[in-house]
C-alpha cells in the first residue's frame, strides 16, 4: 500500500474514533465514558484504537484542539471590518452563522476538560492566548484604520468578546430556549456602541 493510501486510512480511522468518542461523551460525559465503549461505538478493536490514541485523555485533547480550530476559523471569518459591521446589524436568523454547529458538538465541554488536565493544559492555554491575540491585533488595526473606537482597549476588548462568544456557545448547548431575538439585538447594540467608531456603518 502506498504511503498516501496509508496516511489516508490513518486519517480516516482517527476521524472514525473521534466521532465515535464524541457520541459516547455526549451520552455519558467524559469521566463516565469507558474506552471499551468508544471501541464498540467505533466498531474497532481496542488495539486499533490504541494505535491511534494512547489514552482517552488524548482523544479528548484532540477533539478540543479541533473544536478550538473551528472557533479560530470562525474568528478569522468575522474578525474584520465587514464581520463587525455584520454583527452590528445582527438579527435572530443570523445565529446559525455566528454559532454554526461544530463537528463534535463538544466545544466548551471539551475545552474545560483539557484545561483541567495537566498534560494538555499548557497547549490549551497557548491556543486560547493565540486566539485572543489574533482578535486584539484585528481591533488594533481597526483603530489605525478608523473603524474601531480609538478609546477601546484592544487586549481587554478581545478577551471580553471571546468570553462572550464562549458564553453564547454554552447557552446554545444548555438552554436553546432562551430569547435569542433579544440576544441578537443586544449583540448588535454592543458591537455598535462598544467596538465601532461613531459614524461607521
Give a structural overview.
- With 201 residues, this protein is mostly helical.
- It has 2 domains: 1-54, Homeodomain-like (Arc Repressor Mutant, subunit A), CATH 1.10.10; 60-195.
- It contains 10 helices and no strands.
- The chain has helices at residues 3-28, 35-42, 46-52, 56-78, 81-87, 95-98, 107-116, 118-145, 154-174, 180-195.
- Helix 1 packs across helix 2, helix 4 (56-78) packs across helix 7 and helix 4 (56-78) runs parallel beside helix 8 (118-145).
- The chain starts with a helix and ends in a 6-residue tail after the last helix.
Describe the structure concisely for a colleague.
The protein is mostly helical and 201 residues long. The chain contains 10 helices and no strands.
Can you count the beta strands? Answer: 0
* Total helical elements: 10
**Helicity level, as a percent range?**
over 70%
Q: For the CA atoms, what is the radius of gyration?
A: 20 Å
Please report which band the strand proportion falls in: under 5%, 5-15%, 15-25%, 25-35%, 35-45% or over 45%: under 5%
Task: List segments where confidence is low: pLDDT < 50 over at least 5 consecutive residues.
Answer: none
State the major sheet. Answer: none
Ends distance: 57 Å
Key words describing this protein structure:
single chain, 201 residues, mainly alpha, Arc Repressor Mutant, subunit A, 2 domains, 10 helices, 0% strand
Topology overview:
Blueprint lengths: L2 H26 L6 H8 L3 H7 L3 H23 L2 H7 L7 H4 L8 H10 L1 H28 L8 H21 L5 H16 L6
Helix pairs in contact: 1-2, 1-4, 4-7, 4-8, 5-10, 7-8, 8-9
